[in-house]
Amino acid sequence: MELDNLSRRLIERFQHGMPLCPEPYRAMAEALDCTEADVLDRLARLQAEGALSRVGPVFEHRRAGASTLVALSVPEARLEQVAARISQFPEVNHNYRREHRYNLWFVLTGPDRAHLSRVLDEIEAETGLMPLDLPMHTAYRIDLGFPLETLR
Question: Start and end of every Siroheme decarboxylase NirL-like HTH domain (predicted)?
Answer without folding.
Answer: 8-51
